[in-house]
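Long-time lurker. I teach an intro course on protein structure, and each term I like to show students one example going from raw sequence to a predicted 3D structure in token notation. This year I'd like something fresh instead of my usual example. Would anyone be willing to generate the tokens for the chain below so I can use it in lecture? Attribution to the forum is fine with me.
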Amino acid sequence: MNSRAFIFVTAILIPLVLFLISPVYSSLFSSEKSLSYALMHTKDLTEDYKEGDSWSKLSTSFDGIELKSAYLSRILIVNSGNKPISRNDFDSDVIIKMGQEIDILGVRVEGSSPFNLDIDHYFKEDEVNFKGLLLNPNDQFIFEVLSKERPEIISVQSRIAGIDKPRQVDYQKSDGLYLKRMKHESVAVSQETTLIKLNTYLISVVSLIFIFSSLISIRSFENKRGIIYASLYIPYILSLLVSIVMVDSLLKDLGLETTLLRSGVLILVLSMLVFASDFIVKKKGLKTLVSE
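-- Reply from a regular --
Happy to contribute to a lecture. Here you go:
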């Protein structure tokens, strides 16, 4: 290998591959307990008939008490690790702080997965509490909280064996691709089952590898006419489309919000693959002979 090839492989190609596969590698071999939470949604129940609106004479009440303001919040609790959290791991009840003087009126469990989770909970003026319970990986439940004031910032406090502290996440951001099965049990109720979850990093790496191998096949093919040569463009085009979508989503998750910047990075990566495939074909003198 000459100096130019060595510099390209060691300085560009290998770091790029390591950068793309490192999250996948770490996720395969890491094992940890993790409890995560998220404030998924807050709804102002009186926003549709504020003063000046045609429905301003409507009022909201709870348990016989008229409310000038009312907010309905949904809080997700999930075992986001890959190890079970047992009931004995909890040294104290879990406390969900929702801000000062929000005046919580009521709390209920809106849903859980699996459906038979036994969640023992209670609430105070500005916090929701629940007792320790067995949570297997991906077990989750949602609290629906009714309060007089809007919760701005929530925090979760607890002492759990093997967990430094519960982790706040934003579940509105995508973390992969899902193939799901939907079963409608009634007009208002449906059951959702996840069949396949695909990691964005993994799909990005595989699609780039397919692009690279397809470019080598196309450039090393000697007979540039015929059905066989044209068919080589099918996996190349499909891989190119997948990589554009996946790498763009990956860069957005990594914090590159500007479309122009993501496009520049994507063009740079694809240009490197084109250059590398052309270099390999010319360097090795690869030729594919096929008689049609």
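Some talking points for your students: The helical segments are 3-29, 200-220, 227-231, 233-253, 259-284. The two ends are 35 Å apart (CA to CA).
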